[in-house]
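Hi all, posting the design record for the shared folder.

TITLE: backbone redesign
STEP: 1 of 1
STRUCTURE INPUT:
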């Protein structure tokens, strides 16, 4: 597990206190966390990188977009900032990466927060993302944006935020498609079902009850598989929990992180919400 020589992730940092590493999903960048950062940075030191091939972290030549590469990038980022252990918050495919980091480098992980995540890339995720690929290749960017927005947001949110389609279109039109697509293909190969029971870090799971990318049953499986983990389900919410439910999500995350910091290092949190 090693980062590419000379390659460094671009990252936004804010706040002081215990470090919290924020991992976005595919087709995204660190701006996913913009709504959450002000509240989080009031008590913690937030680190939001653009993962390899996303945002300002252009992938170096020869990138394989493997989990090993992504994990190596993160360890290099933590070493550069002199962060021995961090709270890791992963969204969607970033939740897969958070789980992989906890399994392969538990010494660097203080706690886990898995947002719109799963223990493996199941049939539902595969079907939805295959449809995204087909629409993007056969019908172009505009059709892809409409399909993506329809799938990742609950209808109530888009009805109240009509600007979201234009925002997503502008962002996707300005970034190369290759890196996110390669990362999505890597994520589709993730399967931690036989391993995550070994995780011994405080874990908070947040999921939308109306998520059509990763069904809420995936969150319940995580809760049953990771000892001592907590589960918070958000009703009338799709895949984009940090955006659709910013205030309750941020409050829940802060409550979890604060309780972890108050306890002895590595101790599980037994209460389930």
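Okay, here is what came back for every position:
SEQUENCE:
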């Amino acid at each position: 597990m090693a980062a590419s020589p000379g390659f460094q992730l671009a990252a936004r940092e804010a706040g002081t206190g215990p470090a919290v590493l924020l991992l976005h999903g595919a087709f995204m960048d660190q701006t996913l966390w913009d709504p959450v950062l002000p509240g989080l940075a009031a008590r913690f030191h937030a680190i939001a990188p653009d993962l390899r091939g996303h945002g300002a972290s252009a992938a170096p030549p020869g990138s394989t977009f493997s989990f090993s590469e992504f994990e190596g990038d993160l360890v290099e980022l933590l070493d550069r900032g002199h962060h021995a252990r961090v709270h890791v918050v992963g969204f969607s495919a970033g939740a897969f990466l958070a789980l992989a980091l906890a399994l392969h480098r538990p010494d660097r992980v203080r706690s886990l927060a898995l947002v719109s995540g799963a223990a493996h890339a199941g049939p539902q995720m595969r079907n939805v993302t295959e449809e995204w690929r087909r629409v993007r290749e056969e019908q172009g960017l505009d059709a892809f944006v409409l399909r993506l927005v329809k799938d990742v947001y609950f209808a109530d949110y888009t009805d109240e935020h009509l600007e979201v389609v234009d925002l997503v279109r502008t962002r996707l039109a300005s970034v190369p498609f290759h890196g996110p697509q390669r990362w999505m293909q890597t994520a589709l190969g993730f399967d931690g079902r036989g391993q995550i029971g070994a995780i011994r870090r405080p874990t908070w799971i947040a999921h939308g009850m109306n998520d059509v990318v990763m069904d809420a049953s995936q969150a319940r499986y995580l809760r049953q598989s990771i000892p001592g983990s907590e589960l918070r389900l958000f009703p009338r919410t799709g895949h984009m929990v940090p955006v659709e439910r910013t205030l309750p999500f941020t409050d829940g995350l802060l409550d979890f992180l604060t309780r972890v910091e108050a306890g002895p290092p590595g101790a599980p949190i037994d209460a389930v919400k």
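COMMENT: The CA atoms of residues 87 and 238 lie 24 Å apart.
Let me know if anyone wants the other runs.
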